[in-house]
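Field reference: sequence -> structure
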Amino acid sequence: MTTKKLFFTILFSLTVAYASAQQGITLRDAQKEGIGSNELDKTYINALSTVETSVTGEKKDEVLLAAWKKLLNDLRVFLKKNDFEWKEDASCLNKVYFTPEGKIAYFLYDVPSLDEKDQAEFKRLLNVFIKDYTFGYTTKKQFTQCGSTKFKSSVVKK
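Structure field:
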């Protein structure tokens, strides 16, 4: 095989691997598939460790925090626009892994209060959402950010 052919074969393989890696998955299922946070944390750095001070002395942590809040809000809006209903208030633990360019590689989550049907729909919608989402913070290395959020019930109580 020529060097040029080898190069394009490797490039194609890496592209396919990246495209298939992008996924939203529960923390439990990720662990079962060998892509749990313990494994991913070996190759993704904590986003807070990427925060630098600019020439003017401003820290990028404000940009990171704003981007994180926007991500969670954009997800809320997307779920609502796609008629996902929260039957009760729900806490969601999130651990998101990003490429240096801010694309989502993995979105690990845990929403224990959802029933099986809603879990499946949440996962489906999350995967649609992350497909084209770009996080508003970039770095020189792949990074991770985690946190929790509360989703408010969308059911009107009588």
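Note: The two ends are 70 Å apart (CA to CA).
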